[in-house]
Amino acid sequence: MSTQEQITHFRTIFSALRDEVGKIIVGHESIVDNTLVAILAGGHVLLEGVPGLGKTLLVRTLGEVLDLSFSRIQFTPDLMPADILGTNLVMETPDGRRLFEFQKGPIFAHLILADEINRATPKTQSAMLEAMQEHSVTAGGALRRLTEPFFVLATQNPIDQEGTYPLPEAQLDRFFFKLLVGYPTAAELTEVINRTTETAKTELRRVVSREQLLEMQLLVREVPVASHVKDYAVRLVQATHPKTETGTAMVSQFLRFGSSPRGAQALILAGKVRALAQGRFNVSFDDLEAIALPALRHRLILNFEAEAEGVTTDHIIAQVLKDVPRDAVAVGA
To answer: Which domain, by its residues, includes 64?
Structure first.
């Protein structure tokens, strides 16, 4: 298959996935698109929004349209690492002997829905952190590899703070994207009511197999990035570092810490997926700017002044995009 045929195939499947998810999910087009971008880039997604906006439904729908094994983990304060990873059980053989046999937990699947992830204790979240970063877990006294591809799509509620354990910065950084799920419009809410209060049932078809998904991820890695576009991604990330020569004025005023190198990696990989989804085999400045918010918002740590004045990381990223020129030569102009 030629490169152009691969690009066309990629774009066709991306559109088919979007259309199939759209049979269930009303609105939230950018949320759906960015979730697909993260999956095709091989990254995890954190979906944040108040209850009832369809976060869990979105992940369950993706589990149906992707021909992958799917597990849901409902996080609660009493959830233990063994409940996720699995544990050794004493089994009795037909001849009466007893031996330990490892029973795999729900983490051993391709697509994991981590529902209300911030309700688990730090001990349990650390088990998730290892799985997300290493694609392996230490359980039953052995290192066990997870099935590939492996994605964690987590949800959390930003307003209910009682009985929650905020995710540590190190774990937040492991999420490729953080997506903010907002309220539907009046027209979208009307359509939600129509779809959920009538007898009609929508049947979904599986669009992509495991092998096809792995091939698409490999194609993403092959997309070239021009040096000046790569330099722009680097300068965007460096501009988020406060009290440095590269940090912008707003960043130095309102941030304690800027983005890690994973922010730059997310910009480039997501830019590659977005380019392929639009039928291009090169990453543009527009690609990086379009995915800057979901790629960087959870990697910036606000200071007290920002919290007191109601400044969010989205405000800061928007200003960084205005302050950092696309052309590096323009810095000294």
So the answer is: 1-222
SS3 call for 70: strand
Count: domains in the chain: 2
Whether 269 and 219 have beta carbons less than 8 Å apart is answered as no
Does position 330 have pLDDT exceeding 50, yes or no? no
Query: Which of 175, 205, 222 corresponds to the end of one domain?
Result: 222
| Sign of the alpha-carbon torsion through 317, 323, 328, 332 | negative
Give per-residue pLDDT as tens, 102-130. 788 889 989 899 888 888 888 888 888 88
pTM score: 0.88
Q: Which of 2, 4, 33, 16 is nearest to 279 (CA)?
A: 4
Q: Which two tokens stand for residue 155?
A: 């949800």
d(CA 278, CA 299): 27
Distances, alpha carbon 155 to alpha carbons 87, 177, 271, in Å = 25, 12, 24
Q: What is the pLDDT of residues 221-263, one digit of tens each?
A: 999 999 999 999 999 999 999 988 888 889 999 999 999 999 9
How much is the pLDDT for 190?
A: 84
Please state, in angstroms and rounded to a whole number, the distance separating the CA atoms of residues 278 and 284. 11
Question: Residue holding tokens 């205005």?
Answer: 322
Q: Please report the pLDDT score of residue 332 as a whole number.
A: 41
Q: Which residue has the tokens 């996935």?
A: 17
